[in-house]
Each structure stands twice: as C-alpha cells, then as structure tokens.
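[#protein-structures] MJ: dropping Fur-regulated basic protein FbpA here for a structure pass
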Amino acid sequence: MSIDRFIIKKLDNCHEEQTRLNLVKLFKLRIQKAEKEEYKNHRIS
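AK: finished. structure tokens for Fur-regulated basic protein FbpA:
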C-alpha cells in the first residue's frame, strides 16, 4: 500500500482531531513535494 493511500485510509478511520490535523499536514507536504518534482522535471524536459 502506498503511503498516500495509507494516509487517506487513516484519515477515514481517525476520529481524534489532532491526529487528523497531523495527517492532513503530512498529506499536504507530500503533495507539495510532488508538485516541486513535477515542476523540476517539466523545466528540464
């Protein structure tokens, strides 16, 4: 299972507010990292 799917699954099942906020922050960081990589790869091509 990919880390992204793991985070989404945990978000679905998690009811503790602080844990949910931390999972959302982690997911946002992963999205930002992927966007930077995509931009970097697009500039090189």
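MJ: nice. The radius of gyration is 13 Å.
AK: one more thing. The first helix runs from residue 3 to 13.
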